[in-house]
Amino acid sequence: MASAKNPNSPAAARRAKLEEARRKERARERRGRLITIGASVAVVLALVAGGGYLVYQANEKDKKEEQARNSPVTGERTWKDLKQNHVETKVDYPMTPPVGGDHSQVWMNCNADVYTEEIPKENAVHSLEHGAVWVTYNDKASEADVKALTEKVKSTPYSLMSPVKDQKDPLMLSAWGKQVTVDSASDARVNQFFTKYVQGPQTPEPGAACTGGLDR
Bias category Basic and acidic residues: which stretches (predicted)? Predict the structure, then answer.
């Protein structure tokens, strides 16, 4: 009859150590899997939350733009039934800056173009016909406002900017048939006017070029 195994023998001690090592390894593997799963869940939750926030921001931006397009611009002046003939002579416009009427057959480039000297009004009016917003200022405008509006125009296709010394207010925005005086570059009406009238519904020739015209 075989004798019972001695639990205190060297072989038994080695088996116990091996089993303990395997137990610890399995425990480490379980912890590793839990950490990996937890990290994956955290990443997914972060992506979902981040994606949801981005969607929320996009929706809020769309809402604000829609509201800007559908709300009247406070203090805005409107002219209707403006002529659109091409002429080769100077035009005596009833408003300064002009917002429409007969104009040169060549438009001023208005693809985010900023002019530091006065430009021909007849060419600028043609740009308005193409759906551009024209930012103008006189000597009373502050340097800070001129700089801020310059950056706004430089980042906005279908817009242009130039000084108009004989305009009555320091800062004015014009589109075809539309015009408003703003108090500063940070006036909320600046963004609203751009949102509403850059290629807006007032445009007689939407989609017409703002490049390939006069550049000076």
Answer: 16-28
Q: Rounded CA gap, 152 and 112, in Å?
A: 9
Sign of CA dihedral 155, 158, 164, 166: negative
Q: For residue 203, is it within any domain?
A: no
Name the amino acid, one letter, at 94. P
Examine the pLDDT at 25 and tell me if it is beyond 80: no
Q: What is the pTM of this model?
A: 0.73
CATH number at residue 186: 3.40.30
Same domain, 92 and 63: no
For 50-93, give the DSSP string.
HHHHHHHHHHHHHHHHHHHHHSPPTT-EE--S----B-SS----
User: Is residue 84 a contact partner of residue 129, using CB atoms and an 8 Å limit?
Assistant: yes
8: pLDDT confidence band, cut at 50, 70 and 90?
Answer: low
Quick one: 18 and 122 in the same domain?
A: no
Cβ neighbourhood burial of 163 (10 Å; 0-12, 13-18, 19+) = middle
- Regarding whether 128 and 60 lie in a shared domain, the answer is no
Output the six-digit token pair for 4: 């019972």
